[in-house]
Structures are given as C-alpha cells and as structure tokens.
Specification:
Strand content: 15-25%
Largest sheet: 5 strands, mixed
Number of strands: 5
C-alpha cells in the first residue's frame, strides 16, 4: 500500500500538509494491519471529506525510501506500525521519538525497517521537523484479514493520542465526538 491508493484523494495535499500520519503495515497479515487501521479510524473522525487543515493521512508498506519521501518537509510525521516485544502484551502502545541515530535493524516484517528510513533521511537531510512513532504490540501477523481483539481495542486510545500529537503541532482538527 502506498499513498496512491483509491482513498488518497481524501487527504490534504503534500504542499499543504504540515503534519503527516503514516500507517505502516499490511492489512492481509492480521495485526500487521494496525497502522492502516489506525489511519482509517483517524480519517473517520475527521470532517466528512476526510481531511483536516494541514493534515495528510496515508498508508505505506514500510519501504524506507517511500517513508522518507512521505515525511520530507513535514513539521510532524507520526508513523504507526505493529511491533513485536518480549514479553508480549498485545495491544500495548509504545511511543518513541527516534533521533538521527535510532538503531538500524537488519530486517523487519516490512523489509529493511524504520531504522533504515531514519538513517537514510538523516543522511539525506530529509528528516521531518519531528518524528513520532507509535508501535502497537501485535499478537498475530499470519496471513489473513482482521486484527486480534487486543489490537483492535487499542485503536481508539491510539487515535486519541495521535490527535493530541496533531493538536500540539498546531494543526486544526474538529472536536472529537465520543462513539
């Protein structure tokens, strides 16, 4: 998945976006779809046309070059992805603000991984003004659609936290109504 998907017209343009929210993952691999699911939930809480002033929402497969292209020139980039942790606590949300020296891992479920994207962006001078990563601990990344109950339950709290990041960055979001 990349920003050129069928719903890419429901977002602010790259030229007007000061904030970008990137959902990384594969919706056909269980909990690996947590990033795209969070973006869909965030879009559902935006105005009827799916946009908010200065905010762009996209989904991406996690390719480092695509990530760098997406967040270049953003004042704030929020990346949402599934993660594995030991010991595991599916649905637990981790917030990270990686610096230019964030550890580079050899592989991830998305190929080279976010660490490579950060290193590449640093080398090219293309880091966003601020980068925040939300990682949701996954339970199951096997083939198939749908999130496990623990990861699905984490989406609303996660979206509230993302909205707070956006508000702190100065972008205008409508007041959230409780569902």
């Amino acid at each position: 998945m990349d920003s050129g998907g069928p719903d890419s017209g429901r977002q602010a343009t790259a030229e007007t976006a000061r904030v970008i929210v990137i959902g990384v993952g594969n919706t056909f691999r269980g909990d690996d779809g947590a990033g795209p699911a969070a973006v869909a939930r965030l879009r559902a809480r935006m105005p009827p046309d799916g946009t908010a002033a200065g905010v762009r929402t996209v989904c991406c497969d996690g390719d480092p070059v695509r990530l760098v292209d997406l967040w270049t020139d953003a004042a704030l980039a929020v990346v949402v992805d599934a993660a594995r942790a030991e010991p595991a606590c599916p649905g637990r949300i981790h917030r990270l603000e990686p610096g230019a020296t964030w550890p580079v891992r050899t592989t991830s479920s998305h190929g080279l991984g976010l660490g490579y994207a950060v290193a590449l962006a640093h080398a090219l001078g293309r880091l966003p003004g601020r980068l925040v990563v939300y990682a949701v601990e996954a339970a199951d990344g096997s083939p198939g659609e749908g999130l496990t109950p623990a990861v699905a339950a984490a989406l609303d709290p996660l979206v509230r936290r993302i909205r707070a990041e956006i508000s702190h960055a100065g972008a205008a979001l409508p007041v959230e109504q409780r569902h």
